[in-house]
Write a structure and sequence with these properties.
The structure holds two protein chains of two kinds. Chain A is built from 17 helices and five strands. By secondary structure, chain A is mainly alpha-helical. The relative contact order of chain A is 0.13. Chain B is α+β, with helices and mostly antiparallel strands. In chain B, about 40% of the residues lie in helices and about 20% in strands. Chain B contains eight helices and twelve strands. Chain B has a five-stranded mixed beta sheet. A five-stranded mixed beta sheet of chain B has the order 4-10-9-6-7. A two-stranded antiparallel ribbon of chain B has the order 11-12. In chain B, strand 11 and strand 12 form a beta hairpin. The chains are: A mainly alpha, B alpha+beta.
Chain lengths: ~625, ~325
């Protein structure tokens, strides 16, 4: 089965001689046409784009929820939301931002970019990959279905038992919440499997481990974290589901269960979740800094080791969410130490970026501005995180607005700023047109000012004892002015996001054509056209350094790969020596159908348990059909 | 009793209306003072670190400062910065653990034991005695003598709550099926606001309480007074008020010791009038607020467990007068 892939000298004439290959590749890798064809898509770029766009829709919705909360809290004794609706709104905001925006948007960026960056044609299990997206979408529809009927979950995105149990949250809102966990985690695990194999087995010849772009490294480490973190929350949600609908007692102390068990299982997932969101963002920062300065990132090995160290340490500090639960002192000291130590690998990366920037005269385009915004905001979030790692200080600040400020500085500063920077950076690749520079600068400036105006005062509110998750506060506490400032800041942020949307629409209509490599960047995704053809590269590139596009000799290419089948070139995990070629399946409606039957079974089981069985049984013939059509082109 | 009430009411308003700020201003126990010290110490150290890193970013981008550096120099700079970070974090870690031990010193044998049970959305407070019948039960107001360690035994019968009285100590969760302890040594007389810090349902926002630190003599007086059964109505209108209370739905949930009312779902009202607030430190305990609360508690704390009460105005006035007489 193995095909020796020959390295050729750099192409001197990339024009006409490839026209035949180009045409045949386009025919072999063609998508299913027509509107129904949308249900057949298995291309990693299409599915990645869907993740990104869907996640942005959820980002806007959760942003509206945040605005509603800020409207309610702008004045003391506000009457805009009653306590019931407020509880639903803050639960939906957290759930949406974490499960339906932050993680999926990073999955989407990874799915779109990583196969391009490592120089392959598609992910290894394209049809499974499609299932992941459909599950994600159905989870979101389910969540908002309950919310629109004013029966949304209202026990917080952390869903602490017993409040989230049957006795205190009767009704289907929490049932749905538990079920959407399953949907999003299945989708995350599928993407994790796809991208881990992509990075380990499908890298372009020559891209040994020490030549993988830092963004792809970040995604690889993140996906491995997903594999270890998600089972904990699937266990937690499954147990809560069975407590709620089958009458088991995992979390019921009266029957030998334990209310704290939930917190351990949830945060064993929940803390790594933060790094699952944050590590891809660090990869984006590296890509943007490298392109803006036209330098390689300083300290590549240190950067990679820092990512890996963060992932390891990230699993050892979940208890810092639980310092107030009354754990033994020795244990608390351990988790304090772990929580503080995780600042070190992050610090190493920041120092390496500064070393990269040193005297570099970067290009001051919007992506780079967002990087600077990241430095400022994430730094503050990281430092307040060190304060919260200290048990005595945390016992005062825990569950106050100081914590709200802290994690928004970490998540918006550490993930949303880099994400916006990443969108400005890769939008030309994905859509073929540049985003506007002036609007981009305004977008950044307003987001930066609005963000700090919203969240900086919250540190002070926490110092003054304002607790989280309150629907109102009394006027005599001295919290009025800071809350009003935060609400005004939220409005400024809304304007910034609106400018971004306007920029996108304008660019799609009449944006400047991007060309293959508008930033003169180093990695392989810039070696193909913008937007890339469905088969990504006419010829699989051959890599001879960490910055293949900056090699004076140009980029090598693999020849001799048949173009009449959907073939991937499989390489060795360490040094990316070509090993064999692997055929992958093409468009199919089966992933959609099987997601539908399984998803409806899960959703139906909220109302009647047997729907789970019906869904499973209905999926069997579809699974068989999938199996027998696997070989179809 | 009269000796305590007026200053208490004043102090209450002071506590409720001043910002309940824990940092630097108003530490009422060595525990809180130790935490505040650590807090500001970390704050300034980390603030300096943040300033230096941002200065480094600015310098890197400045044409004047950023002289060309080769890889060796840059590697040395990164290594030094990392080493300094490790050292600083170790120092902070040691400081944190030392402060943690300071805050968690055992209470000693003469500590005052108080049992606190969290409910949606109020606090049950119990001073246990050797004879269980003599135990003092009250709600939403903890009294402690100054200078003596108080050891709070924390539990919950419904969902997870968290007790937080910033002026004396950090917070501690009240978890069903578990027992937690919170110990502090109040060193200053005064009234301090506390509250629930863990989201516990719709009225989490309005689940407050007061901590009243008194002289030992005042505290002994208060405790003895709370141990008494309720005051007998002295007038016919008060007696009518008691009859309204006993005949209506009130007694299904509330206890007034010395009367047949012994419900346990809601706060003990035996000495309601001695308390400075009602509805878990949501409103001052005045006749007007109490009447408003009895008639329509759902307007003040939507979603709370107390139903509205439609009463003829005469009945309402007598009922409130009776409740106000329960000193």
């Amino acid at each position: 089965m193995s095909t020796p892939a020959k390295k050729t000298p750099p192409e001197t004439d990339p024009g006409e001689p490839l026209a035949g290959e180009r045409a045949e590749l386009a025919k072999t890798w063609r998508k299913r046409s027509g509107s129904l064809g949308l249900l057949f898509s298995v291309d990693h770029k299409t599915i990645g784009k869907r993740y990104i766009i869907t996640a942005f829709v959820f980002f806007l919705v959760a942003g509206v929820e945040a605005a509603a909360m800020r409207l309610q809290l702008a004045r003391p004794e506000g009457r805009f939301l009653n306590p019931d609706v407020y509880a639903q709104v803050f639960t939906m905001h957290g759930t949406t931002m974490m499960f339906f925006f932050a993680v999926p948007v990073m999955l989407g960026m990874g799915l779109y970019l990583v196969p391009l960056m490592v120089g392959t044609r598609n992910v290894p299990f394209p049809r499974l990959n499609a299932v992941g997206y459909w599950f994600y979408l159905m989870g979101g529809v389910l969540l908002y279905g309950t919310f629109v009927m004013n029966r949304g979950p209202d026990a917080g995105w952390f869903a602490y038992v017993p409040l989230s149990g049957n006795a205190y949250s009767a009704g289907h809102g929490m049932d749905a919440w538990v079920q959407i966990i399953n949907f999003t985690e299945v989708s995350a695990l599928i993407v994790a499997g796809s991208l881990i194999v992509t990075v380990f087995k499908q890298r372009a010849p020559g891209m040994s481990l020490n030549r993988i772009p830092l963004f792809a490294w970040a995604i690889l480490v993140t996906m491995i974290m997903i594999v270890f973190a998600m089972p904990a929350v699937i266990f937690a949600a499954g147990s809560l589901n069975s407590d709620r609908s089958l009458g088991t007692h995992f979390f019921n102390p009266a029957e030998g269960g334990d209310a704290l068990l939930w917190q351990h299982a949830f945060w064993f997932f929940g803390h790594p979740e933060v790094y699952i969101i944050f590590l891809p963002a660090l990869g984006m920062i590296s890509a943007i800094i490298s392109a803006s300065t036209r330098r390689q990132i300083f300290g590549y090995t240190a950067m990679v080791l820092a990512l890996v160290a963060t992932a390891f340490l990230g699993f050892g500090l979940w208890v810092h969410h639980m310092f107030a639960t009354g754990l033994p002192q020795m244990g608390e000291a351990f988790f304090t130490a772990a929580s503080m130590m995780i600042a070190i690998p992050t610090g190493v990366q920041i120092f390496c970026w500064i070393a990269t920037l040193w005297g570099s005269r970067p290009r001051w385009d919007p992506p780079f501005l967002f990087v600077l915004g990241f430095f400022f905001t994430f730094l503050i979030g990281g430092l307040t995180g060190v304060m919260l790692a200290s048990v005595p200080v945390d016992l005062q600040l825990h569950d106050t607005f100081f914590v709200v400020a802290h994690f928004h500085y970490v998540l918006i500063g550490g993930a949303v700023f880099p994400l916006f920077g990443g969108i400005y950076h890769w939008f030309p690749k994905i859509m073929g047109r540049m985003l506007g520079r002036t609007l981009g600068i305004w977008n950044f400036a307003l987001l930066f000012v609005g963000f700090n105006l919203t969240f900086f005062p919250m540190h002070e509110l926490g110092f003054h004892g304002m607790p989280r998750r309150v629907y109102t506060y009394s006027p005599d506490r001295g919290w009025n002015g800071l809350n009003l400032a935060a609400s005004i800041g939220a409005a400024v942020m809304a304007v910034a996001v609106a400018l971004f949307l306007i920029n996108v629409v304008q660019s799609l209509r009449r944006g400047r054509r991007a060309g293959d490599n508008p930033w003169d960047a180093e990695s392989l995704e810039w070696a193909t056209s913008s937007p890339p053809p469905v088969y990504n590269f006419v010829r699989i590139p051959v890599v001879s350094s960490r910055s293949p596009l900056w090699e004076p000799g140009g980029l090598g290419a693999v020849t001799g790969m048949p173009t009449d089948k959907r073939l991937l070139l499989v390489t060795h995990p360490l040094d990316a020596e070509p090993s064999h070629r692997e055929e992958v399946p093409g468009p199919s409606v089966n992933p959609f159908l099987i997601s539908l039957t399984m998803g409806l079974g899960l959703i139906g089981s909220i109302f009647w348990l047997w729907w789970a069985v019906i869904g499973a049984v209905a999926s069997i013939p579809l699974a068989y059909l999938w199996y027998v059509t696997e070989e179809d082109p | 009793m009269r000796r305590i009430a007026p200053p208490l009411a004043l102090a209450t308003y002071a506590a409720l209306s001043s910002a309940c700020s824990y940092v630097a201003l108003d530490n009422a126990s060595p525990e809180a003072a130790a935490i505040t010290k650590l807090h500001w110490w970390m704050f300034w150290v980390l603030g300096a670190v943040g300033f230096l890193v941002m200065a480094a970013v600015a310098a890197a981008l400045s044409r004047r400062f950023a002289r060309p550096a080769d890889d060796r120099q840059r590697m040395r700079a990164v290594a030094v910065a990392t080493g300094v970070s490790v050292l600083l974090l170790l120092v902070l870690l040691v400081a944190s653990v030392v402060t943690g031990r300071e805050v968690a010193t055992p209470a000693g044998p003469d500590a005052l034991d108080i049992e606190i049970t969290g409910h949606q959305w109020w606090w049950e407070i119990r001073y246990p005695t050797a004879v269980p019948r003599d135990a003092v039960v009250t709600a939403n107001e903890i009294h402690v003598p100054v200078g003596r360690a108080a050891r709070l035994r924390l539990g919950s019968n419904d969902v997870i709550h968290s007790l937080w009285i910033p002026n004396v100590d950090g917070k501690r969760d009240l978890i069903p099926g578990r027992t937690n302890w919170l110990t502090f040594r109040p060193r200053r007389i005064g009234t301090f606001a506390g509250r629930c810090a863990e989201f516990c349902g719709y009225q989490h926002a309005k689940m407050g309480l007061l901590l009243v630190v008194q002289t030992p003599a005042d505290f002994a007086l208060w405790l003895a007074q709370q141990r008494q059964p309720s005051a007998e109505p002295a007038e016919a209108s008060l007696e009518h008020g008691r009859d309204v209370f006993l005949a209506g739905p009130c007694s299904a949930c509330h206890t007034i010791r010395g009367t047949p009312a012994f419900g346990h779902k809601a706060p003990d009202l035996t000495h309601l009038a001695s308390r400075a607030t009602i509805a878990a430190a949501t409103l001052p305990n005045t006749t007007g607020h109490l009447a408003g609360w009895v008639v329509d508690p759902q307007r003040i704390k939507p979603g709370n467990r107390m139903p509205p009460n439609v009463l003829p105005s005469g009945d309402l006035l007598d009922l409130v007068a009776y409740l106000r007489s329960l000193r």
